[in-house]
Amino acid sequence: MVEAPRRDARSFVYNACMPFRAQPGNPNAAKRSRTPPPEDTFEEATFLKALGEKQKPVSLKLMDGQTVRGWIEYYDKNMVRLTREGAPNLFIFKHEIMYIAEDGGRKK
To answer: Using 50, 70 and 90 to split pLDDT, how confident is the model at 84?
Structure first.
C-alpha cells in the first residue's frame, strides 16, 4: 500500500489566491471602510427616566433567567429600584439585568 504524502499545516494555505485588501473599483470597497457602530448610545438614562416618570409597567429579565415585573421608581449608574404591588420592592444591580421591556399600558 502506498502512503499519501503528508502535508505540513504551515505549508498549505487554502485561501492563498484571495486578496487581503479590496481591489480598486470594487463596489464593496466603500462598505468595508465604515466604522463599526458605537458600544454605547448614551440613551439608557433617557429610557429609564421616561419609564420612571410615566410609571410604565416593565418586565426585567435577569441574567439567571428570572423575570420580575413592576415599575421603575429610581435608577442610578449601578442599579435600578423596581417597585412592585403586593410584593417587596427590589434594588437590582444593572449588571444582573439582561433586558428591560415595557409591559404596555399605565400603572394602575
So the answer is: very high
